[in-house]
Write a structure and sequence with these properties.
single chain, 347 residues, alpha+beta, Thrombin, subunit H, six-stranded antiparallel beta barrel, 20 strands, globular, protease
């Protein structure tokens, strides 16, 4: 009789848990959107030009009645076109407002108002989350919209203070399933508050193996909603060592530009991406683009100097100008531009 009573109590507990997850999902899922991005790349392979129209997809979630949406930076950073698809099937174009690739968080906004009221979610205080707390994720793994996965916070990763004493990244590790298309989706606590933005997974099989990561909501709030991280629109790599010698860079390091998004800061500075796709030490690189040597008076020869330059960019204001030195096709050029008004305007 005692055994039967314990089983009965366990069944009631599990049923209550299931109803809680179901209720929270129903309350939250309408705020989650599918994001499709498009861009055109021209590269040369074996001397033959190849033009590719690339599309990618991920997730995001609405945080304001004005149509602001949090998502992953890597999904939208260099996109030429961003399309947001809501639960009712309505599709609207969006643009990037702010982006911080180091933490993989971005804020985008729909260009035209939605025809029906938006459903928003609340950002929770991620500092209150603990290892062992239960979480759930809503996203679009492999394009399957509004899929639910449930798990626990396995670990917290916080980057130690770096240049200027600023903490730039903080991630939750979770065993909640994360796959391609989950990027940018919300990680919820059991109060229905967003405490993380899905970022990436670690896998040897290109599928989920229990190691998924999400940027914390507090870092996203700080970088995007308070500090308004500048959207550079660049996909770039810091290069040093032998590759610097191979490319005849006249200093010990530099920023190799891979891609540049239209209407971004990189586009305003007239930077050019690469067109020659190669593999160096198992890394895919696109060569032929500009290499940034200096930003203002900062020589980009180390990771510390690159971080210092990044914070200079974050301090740009209306009316400021930016000066860079680049290596382009063997020639050193200086570019100086005043940042136009439209770059600082919200839609």
């Amino acid at each position: 009789m005692k055994y039967i009573l314990h089983v009965f109590i366990l069944l009631i507990t599990l049923q209550g848990f299931s109803q809680t997850i179901s209720t929270l999902y129903e309350q939250s899922s309408s705020s989650v959107v599918l994001i499709k991005t498009m861009q055109t790349n021209m590269t040369f392979r074996a001397g033959i030009p190849v033009v590719n129209s690339l599309s990618n997809y991920g997730s995001g979630f609405v945080i304001s009645n004005e149509g602001e949406i949090l998502t992953a930076s890597h999904l939208v950073q260099t996109a030429e076109k961003i399309c947001v698809i809501f639960t009712d099937g309505e599709e609207l174009l969006a643009r990037v407002l702010y982006s911080y690739p180091l933490a993989d968080v971005a804020l985008i906004k729909i260009i035209t108002p939605k025809s029906t009221p938006l459903v928003t979610v609340k950002l929770g205080n991620s500092d209150h989350s603990r290892i062992g707390d239960q979480v759930f994720i809503i996203g679009a793994p492999f394009g399957l919209r509004h899929s639910l996965s449930v798990g626990y916070i396995s670990r917290k990763y916080k980057r130690e203070p770096s240049y200027n004493g600023l903490v730039t990244t903080e991630f939750f590790q979770s065993d909640a399933a994360i796959n391609k298309g989950s990027s940018g989706g919300p990680m919820f606590n059991m109060k229905g508050e967003v405490i993380g933005i899905v970022s990436f997974l670690v896998s040897q099989s290109h599928g989920f193996q229990g190691f998924g990561f999400a940027a914390s909501s507090n870092i996203a709030k700080k970088l995007l909603l308070e500090e308004h991280a500048i959207w550079t629109g660049l996909e770039a790599n810091f290069i040093s060592g032998p590759i610097v010698e191979v490319l005849n860079v006249p200093q010990k390091g530099g920023i190799l530009i891979q891609k540049v998004a239209p209407f971004s800061l990189g586009s305003i500075m007239e930077l050019q991406g690469g067109i020659y796709e190669i593999i160096i030490e198992n890394d895919n690189l696109i060569l032929g683009g500009d290499i940034i040597l200096t930003l203002d008076d900062i020589q980009l020869v180390s990771e510390e100097s690159v971080l210092k330059a990044w914070y200079v960019l974050q301090g740009l204001k209306l009316g400021d100008s930016l000066r860079i030195t680049i290596l382009r096709k063997g020639k050193i050029l200086e570019i100086k531009k005043e940042i136009p008004d439209f770059f600082f305007e919200k839609i």
